[in-house]
Every structure is written in C-alpha cells, then in structure tokens.
Specification:
The complex is a heterodimer of chains A (850) and B (329). Chain A is an all-alpha fold and 850 residues long. Helices cover 64% and strands 2% of the residues of chain A. In chain A, helix 4 runs parallel beside helix 6, helix 8 packs parallel to helix 11 and helix 22 packs antiparallel against helix 25. Chain A is globular, with a radius of gyration of 28 Å. In chain B, the strands form 4 sheets. Chain B has a 5-stranded mixed sheet, with no helix packed on it. A 3-stranded mixed sheet of chain B has the order 4-10-9, with helices on one face. Chain B has a two-stranded antiparallel sheet with strand order 6-7. The radius of gyration of chain B is 26 Å and the shape is elongated. Classes of the chains: A mainly alpha (850), B alpha+beta (329).
C-alpha cells in the first residue's frame, strides 16, 4: 500500500501542510507522562526505559561495591577482615547481581529506551508489559539484593551447582532466595524479550526493510531470540532444583539415579549464550556509534549482521566448554573445543569492520568520551577474546579452569565487551534525554581511571591463576607467590571505582531529563536523533536508507512539521503504526494502553508471591498470587478494543484498520513467541529425561507391569483431543457482531474441563503404580511432565474464564475475538505438548522393553 | 599511545611470569612431568601468539586513526574484513587446534607407557582422603598428602563423599572434577622429585579456600620405603599418656589411628600424622605447636570445618594430645 503511492510520485510526502495545531496538542495530551504520585503508572518507553536503566546502574554500583569488599579482603594473604561465610555470600551475590540484575536488565533497558526512537515508533507494542517487567525487576531485585544485609544471601556461587545447593549441604533459605528470586527475574527478562522481538519486527517505519535496519535493532532481535531459547533451560533447572529442595524429588541426587551434571548442562546451555546475550547488543551499539564518530556509513554492514547471527547460533554449541574438567569423553572435548574457537570468527569480523569504518572516516576523529570508551573496548575485548581462544584449548583449560585466569578472562570479555560500550553509550545517547550535555572533561577522567584501573586490576589475575590460585577463595596462604599480584589487583579495583565515581559526579552535575538540549549533537544519521517529544516523533517518516538523516535532507523538518505518516491521533488514544516484518509496509494502526496501576500491582504482587514462597509463607503467597492474577485480568480487560474506531487515514492516501486478527496481529506474534518459550522449556525437559536415562538406565521400568496400562495414556490423550476440538468449536460458534451465542462459552467450558481431565488421568494412572517421585529420578521426571503441562493448563483455564466473562459482558463476537484467538493458540500448543509428553513417558519405556 | 604503553606492560608481566619466576610449589610453571611440561609450552606459545595478535589489532587501529589517507584507504574494503575477520582466524585457530591435540596425544602416550600405580582419592568437605592398595591387597589410608614415585605412571581414581570437588596439583598437569555418582580417572606421570602443593578447584562450600594438599614426588625406592612404613601401625614411641587423653575424649570416633582403639572413619586417618607436612589440609605446617593451635583454635583457623570444638580440654590435656599426635611418625 505504502509503496504504490510512493512510486506514483516519489517526492510527494504523505501529508500536506499546514497541519492543525490541535493535532500536536492532542498528541501531547494523550502521551503525557503522569505527574506526582501517579508517576509509577507511566508506561511511556522513555520514562520506563530510563527507570529501568537507572535501576540497572544502581545494581551495577552495588555489585561493584561487593567486589571492592572482596578485593580488600584479598589484598593481603590470610586476611581476617571479613568472614568466610560473608565472602562466600559476596561472590555469589556479585556474580548473580552483575549477570541477572545488571547486565541483562541494562541491555533490555537500552532496548526499551532506544528502540522506539531508532524505529520512530510512538512506543513499543506492549507498553504495559515492559512496565510490568521493569516493576517486577525493581521490586524483586531490591528484595533479593538486600538479603546480603541480614546474612540470608545465597552462598552457592552464581552457578549454584548441586549437590552443594541441595538442602543437605545448604539448609536455610539462602539458596531458595537465589532459585525463586532469579527464576522470577528470568520471567521478567522473557517478557522484555517478547516485547523487543515484536517491536523490532513490527513497529519499524515504512520503508525500513530488514536490510536498512539499524545494527542495534538487529542485535536486539538476535539478543531477544537467544533469551527465548536459552532462558527456559535455566528456568527448568531452577524449577527442578527448587522442587528437589522443597519436596525431595531426586533430580540431582546420584544415589536415586539423578546426576549433578544435569544441572551443569542445563545451566550452561543458558549460561554460555548469556555471555553473548550481554555482548551482542553492546556490539550493536558500537556499530551504531562508530559510523557517527567516523562520519561515514558502517563498512561491512551485511557481514556484521551475518556475524551477529552466527554468534547467536554458535553460542548454543559451546556450553560444554564450562565442563571440560568433569571427565566427559574426549570426542565431546574435541567438538566443543573447535566450536569454542569458531565463535572467535564473528567477533573478528566485527573488529575488522569497525577498524575499516574508522579508516574510511573523512574527518579527523575526535577523542571524546564515547570514542575513548570504544577504543578501550577494542583493546580489552581483544585480549579477552584471545584468552578465550586459550581456554578453548582443552589441555590449557585443564590448568586454567576455575583458576584466577578465568576470573581475568571473563572480566576482560564482559567488561570489555559490555561495560565499556555501555559507558560509551551513556555519553553518546545522554544528549537525547538530557537538556544538558555530560562533561567531556569528567568523561575523560572517568575513562582513563576505568581503563588503567581495569588493566591493573585484572591483568595480574592471569598470572595468579596460572600460579595456581583457584577462584572463589576467601583467602590464600602466605608464601605461595600470590601476594604481589593480589595487592596490585586490589589497587586497580579502587582505581576503577574512582572512574565510576567520576561518572556519577558527572551525572549529578549535568544529567537533567528534559527537552532543550542540542538536537543532534554528534550529527548522527539514525532516526533517534529526529526531533522528539513524549509521543516520540511528530510523524512517522518514510525511510529510504540506513542513515536517513544523512541521506534524506530535510527529513527532520518534514517529520517535525507532520508531513510524514500518522501526524495525529486518529483514534483519540495512544497508537502506533504496525508494519510488515520484512518489507515494513504499513499494515494497521495499533491502539495501545496508557498509564495504569494494574500492571504495577501485578508486578508487586508477583514479586511478593515469589518472595513469600521463599520464606515458606504459603498462605500469604497464595493471596498475592490471586492478587497478581486479578491485576493482570483487569489490566488486559480493556486491551481487546475491537474495530470500532477504524479504519483511519494515516496520510498518503492510506487507510488502515485499527483492529486485526490472525497472523497479521502483533498479539498473535507475541503468542507465537511465548509458545517458542514454552517449547524451549519443554525441549529442555525432554533433554533432561533422555539425559538421565543415559546416566542411570537401570532406574527405568524393567517390566511392562511397572507402567500404567495403555488405557490410561490413551484416555488422557482422548481428553486432550476432545479439548482441542471444543476450542475449535468455540471459535466457529462465535456470534455475529452485536449478538451472543451460548455455544461459545459452553464449548470453552468443555475444552477447559477436558484439559484438566487429561492431565488428571495421567497423574492418577501413575499414582496407581505407586510411582514415588522422591524414590527415583525416573519417577520424578514422569511427574515433571505433568507439572509442565499443568502450568500451561492453569494459564489456559484463567484465559478461558476471562474470555467467557467477555462473552457475558458483550465484548466477544465474530468481529472482536483477539482474546479468544490467543487463548486457542496457547491451548493448541498445550495439547500438542501434552500428547508428546504422553508419548515420551509411556512410549519410551515401552520401546526400551520391546 | 597509552594503549601501547599498557601492551608493553602486559608483555613484560607475562614474560616475567613465563620465563623468570613463578615456579612456586603450586604453580603450573613448576611442571614436574612431560604432560605438565607440554601444557607450559602450549601456554607460552599461545601467550606470545595472543600478544602478537593484540599488537597487530592495535597497530591497525592506530593506522585507522592516525595514518595518512592512502594508508587508511587500504583498510576500508569488505575484502579486508573477510581476510582479517574470517580467513586469518580460521587458519590460525585450525593450526592451533590440531597442534594442541598432537601435543596432548604425545603426552598421553608417555603416561600410559607402563603399568600404573593406582591410588584412590576421595574429596571430602574440606579435605582429601588418599587410599593406597598394598601389594598384599590391604588398603591403607592417609590424608591431605599424596606421595607418589617418579618415573612411573600413577592412576588416581577420583570420587567424592559429598559435594563436587576438583582435584588439582598444577605441577602434575590439569585438574579433574570429583562428582557424586561418578568415578573419574586422572593419569599422571611425574619425573621430578620434590614437594608440590595442590588445592580444590571447584567451589565446594564453606572452607573451600582451605582445602589444600601437599604432594611429594619421590624416587621409587624411597617411595617403597615410605609405603612400607606407612602401612605399619602407629609408632610405639608415641606418648602413652597423650594417647589415653586422645581416646578418652572421643577423638577416635572420627579419626583412625591404626594399632589403637581409635577407628573412626569420618575424619582423616591420623596413624602417621606426625610425619606429614601439614595438618588441616594445608592450613598449618606440622609441629607440636601446630597441633596445639589446631585443637584449641581450629574453627578460627578453618571456619565451618566439621570437627567439633574441644574448648573443654585443659591446657595440659591439649599439650598431651598434641605430643601424642606429633609422635605419630
């Protein structure tokens, strides 16, 4: 649609001047940020994103302070400054906080903050979802972190290996805080990932085809995709470990047929991609800043995109390199060693592209703080990458593994690959938000302290490690030769702290949120430097190149005067343009929700529920769970708005609907991604089942009589199929707009009951065989399948009841059924998963016996 | 240009590490056998390679930033990105990978060349149990000290009594984990006599930092003598009065002292503890004073260790026990 009008007259802009001043007044009113005590209800991406970033930065500083305490303890040998137990809590919290409360949230925050601006979208497609994720993270993260102050912090390391973290060796609630707290924050990360995928694929401006997308959007797309695949593995792992701790189901206890290595496989299947999850967006940011610094387009754009995709892909084939010393067979060693080296190639491509872009620059390069931090990153990340190649060599890793060499290596990779780009980002994008510029002088001080301090702190650790100093030690003996290296490291760490302090001083002195700063101080080429207000850009531009601000002269003025698409608010509410995923052709205008308390309450209740469960206050936890669900229901009640206000004119002769169904809809896309998350969780489960079978096959039934009779799974499967047909029928039976058909709620009710019946039959059939999950890992895994299915069925029952309520209030008919459609999608997935799990649980042991 | 300065410092530090010093008892640079030697060689090779690549990248960055335009132009083509980012690392890494495996295979050949001596090693929170099988099939236990003969392959069977530990004596080569439900075998071959130090490398809770051990690599004849002496029951020279106090206070329900009624198996075997290099898994050097210190103060010396506190012992009783233990040579 968009292209046809553009091709008839390529120079005509979609909307003519003059525009009514009322349009801008409407936009300002509709998109206004709530003031005063209502501020927490805000959903604008700029407000939410800044809050997100601020919280992540606070956790960075807090976890950094923990590191300083540790460095002080290690400054001299046999120091008794802090106790062994506190130290063990400190390094656990430092790692956990940096990974889960700083790095991933900081990157998601940048996504929320920058993506809509880079894509000239009014907001991300699910504004309340990102706000929910932020609040859940802030409340959950704060409580989790505070456990360090009352000796309740977990002390099993950020990797939480069982059996050390089982109740036998870690009584107390400390480990539960990790499992529930982190499990919960992972859910918030997944919510953010769904938002980012749909945002990047569906809210790009017209004309921004995939090959014109800013590299940061590519990086965030791959980042979010990796979260969708990787995080469910660790969610399953945390579920298994928490169930073993709370109910004694033996997943990791060797004597019952479990295996501690199952945890390591699941954890590192997440944990290794996690490193790239953190690095890719930061690399994407560097690819955005370097063209501006060099005043020339990025050299090797397509190679960089391929490199990002390759990194994402490779990163899932490396997890075993964290387990080189567990005694796994040498064939696996060879494969994972080669794969670990291969991942160096995409990083090489990016470094060479960046150097090429700098070299292509016409003007002399200015050494301002963003440039300095990027150059600092070149050095630090290169060293980290090369020590990474070293540890990928199995014989060397057998020495270096779990020594201070690894501490040095991973800080070079993570600080070089993420923290330095992040500080470059702070200095580069601050003018977009602040009406005052950050100080160049303080920025340079900050850089030099951090750069010198970093190398002084971490370079000697390589040597300490090779001299035999293991990681995670609260003290070391005198005379081992570690003294000098540790003393130097400690001094370096203080210097890093001074650098960060300069940045904080700079923020306090100069960072003032608001309009009025220079508009495009770096003379950059991408859309986030268009004139902005609370509604993002006044109109949504037609994009014709990768650097539209460089290649389309006058674009800023055209956009600001409202000559491009959607210069107003035709439905009278918050809305943005949804475009097709590849070509970015306008498809419809989405009506979006505004400020609300519902998602804030939902987040607070969810966090409270998880934390109360941790301290075993089950009844208050359940009350909070109910509160969370009710808040969510109220929140989504007003979302399915129906087609009433459309179609609307966005300019250029294009009329778009404001309500769609099926695969065009952004809600459908989100549901599909959610299904991918569930699918990934289920695949991790199947892996666990088969893995445990390879470890202890003798725990599997040796006799067909030990299995429930075949009639049980058949009955269960029939119930699930019935449920599927009933869901199908419920959609078919939808009434004409304006009327009701009682068949719809009846069909839904039957479908929900049949689902519940299906899972109940399966569980009952197993209990008849006296299968006890505390006795063997086999039994625990059999029941685990039903637990995973029950979770989804629980969600379906809530969603189904919600749809039934909409039927009776007249908000469901043949032209307004997005909520029903999403419920049915999830139900189909659930039924498929349930039937596959029946095949596995009943078919696999029978296959072994026949 | 500051970057260059730090690169130089980096080289300097590593040169110092690799060539001049660092041969302390727990260092991988004190390699005592062909296998550990080959890892040291690989480490040097990769370190210098890494330094060269880092310098190369910094040089290119310098060219991109400061060189005249005709130099810079050579860096800007897609072809260079493909050569520098794909071809160069792929070739280099493939060679490295193959070389690494050749090195490893060669070292393994030496290790497996003749009949190995088998020793069972059990990781415990937070100490090491070593079990030797005598020629007549009897098993004797010792703790926190691994004695091995040089020039003979030694096969260590690694298991754990509780959580995951990792057995690591850098001078002998790499580390290997001790995992519940599994049995891992670490083959070592040592050529140099001497005293080396090792430490648990997998975080195992509480006193992980204080789970060390010593290893003494001895000439085969000396090793045979030692094993023979070690297989004897506790020395009769041991202070009898001290033994009574030791037994009367229940020490024997956790510790074994062969030749007495002390037959506990929970804690370290103390039959010849007086002849070992350390007590508390590397916490104190063995001496009479150390035993006194340990008994009086072990929860401070090694917090959370599983031995109960013996604060009710009088100074004199403690002295007697210490004398007894020190006499167990």
């Amino acid at each position: 649609m968009g292209d046809s009008s553009m091709s008839t007259n390529p120079n005509a802009l979609p909307n003519a001047l003059p525009r009514s001043p009322q349009e801008e007044r409407d936009l300002l009113r509709i998109w206004a940020t709530p003031k005063g005590w209502r501020l927490p209800t805000a959903v604008n991406n700029s407000v939410i994103g800044l809050m997100y970033m601020g919280a992540a930065f606070v956790f960075f500083v807090l976890a950094g302070i923990l590191a300083l305490v540790m460095r002080t303890q290690l400054a001299v040998p046999e120091n008794e400054l802090i106790s062994q137990s506190l130290y063990n809590q400190l390094f656990t919290m430092h790692g956990t906080t940096m990974m889960f409360l700083f790095a991933v949230p900081a990157v998601e925050a940048l996504g929320v903050l920058l993506l809509p601006q880079m894509l000239a979208a009014r907001d991300l497609p699910f504004p309340r979802l990102s706000a929910f994720a932020v609040w859940a993270y802030i409340v959950g993260g704060t409580v989790f972190f505070s456990t360090i102050f009352y000796d309740l912090a977990p002390q099993g390391g950020w990797f939480m290996y069982p059996p050390l973290t089982l109740t036998e060796y870690s009584p107390g609630d400390n480990a539960d805080f990790w499992l529930l707290g982190i499990g919960f924050i992972e859910i918030s990360a997944i919510a953010g990932a769904i938002e980012i995928i749909v945002g990047v694929l569906r809210t790009r401006p017209p004309g921004m085809t995939l090959d014109k997308m800013p590299i940061f959007a590519w990086a965030m797309l791959i980042f979010a995709g990796m979260i969708v695949v990787a995080f469910p593995a660790v969610i399953l792992a945390t579920m298994l470990l928490e169930i073993e701790r709370s109910f004694g189901w033996a997943f990791f206890t060797a004597s019952n047929g479990g295996d501690p290595l199952l945890w390591q496989h699941l954890f590192w299947f997440f944990g290794h991609p996690e490193v790239y999850i953190i690095f890719l967006p930061a690399a994407g940011l560097v690819s955005m800043m370097i063209p501006t610094i060099a005043r020339t387009p990025l050299v090797g754009y397509k190679l960089i995109v391929i490199a990002l995709i390759a990194t994402g892909f490779f990163s899932f084939g490396l997890w075993v390199h964290h387990m080189f010393t567990t005694g796994i067979p040498s064939m696996s060693l060879a494969f994972f060693s080669a794969a670990s080296m291969a991942v160096a190639v995409p990083s090489g491509i990016q470094i060479f592209s960046w150097i090429a872009t700098l070299a292509a620059g016409k003007k002399r390069i200015e050494f301002n703080p963003p440039t300095l931090f990027i150059l600092g990153m070149f050095f630090i990340f290169t060293v980290g990458g090369l020590t990474g190649v070293m540890v990928a060599m199995v014989p060397f890793d057998w020495q270096a593994h779990d020594s201070y060499f690894i501490v040095a290596h991973m800080h070079y990779v993570l600080i070089g690959g993420m923290v330095f780009p992040l500080f470059a980002t702070f200095y580069y994008w601050a003018p977009m938000l602040s009406r005052r510029q950050l100080s160049v002088r303080l920025g340079k001080w900050c850089f030099w302290c951090m750069f010198v301090g970093f190398n002084v702190a971490f370079m000697p650790m390589h040597i300490a490690g090779l001299m035999g100093m293991p990681r995670r030690v609260w003290t070391y003996h005198e005379g081992g030769g570690f003294e000098i290296y540790n003393a130097i490291s400690t001094l370096g760490s203080y210097l890093i702290a001074v650098g960060v302090l300069f940045f904080i001083i700079d923020l306090i002195r100069n960072f003032r949120v608001g309009e009025g700063g220079p508009r495009n101080p770096w003379n950059a080429g991408t859309l986030e430097w268009l004139p902005n207000d609370v509604y993002c850009t006044r109109s949504i531009p037609i994009v014709k190149s990768r650097e539209p601000l460089w290649d389309q002269p006058g674009l800023a003025e055209e956009v600001e005067s409202g000559q491009h698409y959607l210069p107003n608010a035709p439905t009278g509410g918050r809305e943005t343009l949804i475009t097709s995923p590849i070509e970015a052709r306008p498809q419809y205008v989405v009506q979006m929700p505004g400020p609300s308390w519902t998602h804030v309450l939902a987040a607070v209740f969810t966090a409270a529920c998880f934390l109360l469960l941790t301290v075993k206050l089950v009844v208050p936890a359940l009350i909070c769970a109910v509160g969370a669900i009710l808040s969510c229901l109220v929140w989504v009640w007003e979302l399915d708005k129906g087609p009433g206000k459309g179609p609307v004119d966005i300019g250029g002769g294009i009329k778009l609907p404001v309500y769609v169904y099926g695969s065009v809809g952004h809600g459908w896309w989100a549901m599909i991604i959610l299904m991918l998350v569930a699918g990934s969780l289920f695949l991790s489960y199947i892996f666990s089942y088969l893995y445990i079978w390879t470890v202890s096959p003798n725990f599997w039934p040796s006799d067909i009589d030990a299995l429930p009779e075949l009639s049980w799974p058949v009955a269960s499967a029939c119930a699930f199929l019935l449920s599927g047909f009933a869901f199908m029928w419920s959609k078919k039976s939808l009434a004409e707009p304006g009327s009701k058909n009682l068949a719809t709620p009846c069909a839904l009710l039957i479908a929900m009951l049949a689902c519940v019946a299906g899972v109940s039959i399966e569980v009952y059939g197993q209990t008849l065989q006296n299968l006890d999950p505390t006795e063997s890992t086999y039994a625990a895994l059999v029941y685990m399948a039903s637990i995973l299915n029950s979770q989804l069925i629980f969600a379906i029952v809530i969603m189904g009841s919600f749809v039934i309520a909409r039927h009776f209030t007249g908000k469901l008919d043949g032209s307004r059924y997005a909520s029903l459609e999403n419920t049915i999608l999830l139900a189909y997935y659930t039924i498929a998963q349930a039937i596959i799990s029946l095949l596995l649980v009943h078919g696999f042991p029978r296959g072994l016996l026949s | 240009m500051m970057r260059l300065k730090y690169t130089i410092r980096f080289i300097f530090l590593l040169l110092t590490a690799g060539l001049l010093g660092c041969k302390t008892e727990q260092s991988m640079f004190s390699s005592a056998g062909p296998y550990a030697d080959s890892i040291v060689w690989l480490t040097h090779l990769m370190t210098y390679g890494a330094i060269a690549v880092t310098l190369f990248i910094m040089l290119l960055t310098g060219v991109a930033l400061f060189a005249p335009d005709n130099w810079k132009r050579k860096l800007t083509s897609d072809k260079n990105i493909v050569v520098g980012g794909i071809v160069f690392p792929t070739v280099l890494l493939t060679i490295l990978l193959i070389y690494g495996f050749i090195l490893l295979a060669n070292a393994e050949k030496i290790v497996r060349s003749s009949e190995a001596l088998s020793i069972d090693v059990v990781g415990e929170q937070w100490w090491w149990r070593f079990i030797y099988t005598l020629p007549d099939g009897r098993k004797i236990e010792t703790a926190n000290e691994l004695r091995i003969p040089v020039n003979r392959p030694v096969s260590l069977t690694l298991t754990t009594a509780d959580v995951i530990h990792s057995f690591w004596i850098p001078a002998y080569g790499g580390k290997l984990d001790m995992i519940p439900g599994r049995e891992n075998t670490l083959d070592i071959f040592v050529q140099q006599t001497g005293v080396f130090r090792g430490q648990c490398a997998e975080y195992c809770g509480g006193a992980h930092a204080l789970m060390s051990m010593y290893s003494v690599a001895m000439l085969p004849s000396e090793f045979e003598q030692w094993l023979d002496k070690e297989s004897q029951i506790a020395s009769s020279a041991a202070n009898a009065k001290g033994k009574d106090v030791f037994l009367a206070n229940g020490c024997g329900s956790c510790h074994q002292v062969r030749g007495t009624t002390a037959n506990g198996t929970v804690g370290p075997d103390l039959t010849h503890v007086g002849s070992r290099l350390s007590i508390g898994a590397g916490v104190l050097k063995v001496s009479k004073e150390s035993f006194v210190q340990w008994i009086e103060n072990h929860q401070r010396l090694k917090p959370d260790n599983l031995m109960p506190e013996y604060t009710f012992l009088t100074v004199e009783e403690t002295q007697l026990i210490a004398e007894f233990l020190h006499g167990l040579q």
